[in-house]
Design goal:
The chain has helices at about 5, 25-30, 35-40, 130-140, 140-160; strands at about 15-20, 45-55, 60-65, 70-85, 85-90, 95, 100, 105-115, 120-125. The protein has 5 helices and 9 strands; from the N terminus they run αβααββββββββαα. It comes from Pseudomonas vancouverensis.
């Protein structure tokens, strides 16, 4: 995929970006090691007691977030593209085995762009419909993904180089 196509904004997407004071390899590691992702995935107060990923195209990406009140939020999907340490793309449109999930909600693209030893981090959630985009925004996309990003940055600061 050309870089111009990758940067084109989808009409029904939400996104968040931040410059992180760490190299892309470190940020990519926080995203691709289940034990690390489980430590920061979800807004403040949430835990992720389950995180499984098979880091290959078609491999599963599964998490279970738990709220302080005990409510659980499972996700299941597959990786569509993995370019270490630059880009991850995953979707809930399929489950492992390329089986349609029944009710796709979004495809996510996460990029890790090197900028003078730091990482320009961008997470894009591209939805299947305007209704899904609005629902995700109403659920608190910017606040929730922003809090997750805060948690990830704190974790990365404590990781050895």
């Amino acid at each position: 995929m050309s870089s111009s196509a990758a940067k084109q904004k989808a009409p029904i997407e939400l996104s968040i970006s931040r410059l992180i004071d760490a190299p892309p390899q470190k940020v990519f590691r926080a995203w691709t090691e289940p034990g690390l992702l489980a430590q920061w995935w979800g807004p403040h107060g949430m835990t992720t007691p389950e995180c499984d990923m098979d880091l290959w195209v078609g491999g599963q990406f599964r998490t279970l977030m738990r709220a302080p009140d005990g409510a659980e939020y499972p996700t299941m999907g597959v990786f569509l593209e993995i370019v270490a340490p630059e880009r991850l793309v995953f979707t809930d449109a399929f489950v492992p085995g390329w089986i349609p999930s029944g009710k796709p909600f979004m495809t996510a693209e996460v990029t890790f762009e090197e900028q003078h030893g730091k990482t320009l981090y961008t997470a894009r959630a591209m939805h299947w419909s305007e209704e899904d985009r609005q629902a995700h925004e109403a659920m608190g996309f910017h606040d929730g993904w922003g809090q997750s990003l805060d948690r990830m940055v704190t974790l990365i600061e404590g990781l050895p180089d």
